[in-house]
Sequence to fold (208 residues):
Amino acid sequence: MRMVFLGPPGAGKGTIAALAREYYGIPHISTGDLFRNNIKNGTELGLRVKSILASGGLVPDSITIEMVRNRLAEPDCARGFILDGFPRTIGQADALAEMTGLDAVVDFRISKEEVVKRLSGRRMCPSTGRIYHILFNPPKVEGKDDETGEDLVQRPDDREDAIVHRLEVYEEQTEPLIAYYASKGLIKEVDASLKPDQVFDLLKKVLG
Ligand code: ADP
Ligand code: ADP
Fold:
């Protein structure tokens, strides 16, 4: 199963991808996670993209496309993959079409009000990337990762000003991909406003 998760920041793509990865036995490729790992490890790529991520803008297509091309060439992608957060522009979608075919593009439907609530309460384990929400999915011990016990962090781009900017960028650059993929007959919609288990059930249903 080769699929793309499309939807605004905060729609729950990463949360559902963590479930779908296990269920379908395919890797979860989040371009945001790949960039954040490079930043954490102080790589050359990380240094180039750090301030872009913090502001909520998009990393240039050329850099992003090369990173994904390399990742998709790894052997674990041979049986399929979940691309989360890529493509985000028409240019990226055209480049992806040259790299691989797709079986489905899942459109996570949710209101702007709800994603703002989700993003502002999001917390993350810095080493594993595990995602929590202070109200909707709190850790067992406040502020600590359930498994490693590490301090959870708030992403710099989950602050109010960056959230507003990211939602504008989504509307301008990424939302047009829904029509792009609909014209190819690939779009499968899920109601992303429900609870994670319910969204995952819907996903399995639409994927058949
Ligand atoms: P979210 O989970 O909130 O949608 P991501 O973790 O996917 O956010 O992305 C975080 C940031 O990483 C983006 O705001 C952007 O700066 C950068 N980024 C991630 N994917 C892409 C992409 N496909 N193209 C350009 N920039 C990207
Ligand atoms: P995305 O990858 O689309 O940016 P995330 O999976 O990181 O979204 O989820 C954003 C925030 O919303 C996180 O704090 C997560 O715990 C929370 N969340 C995810 N899915 C749901 C859901 N179905 N209901 C309530 N909160 C959710």
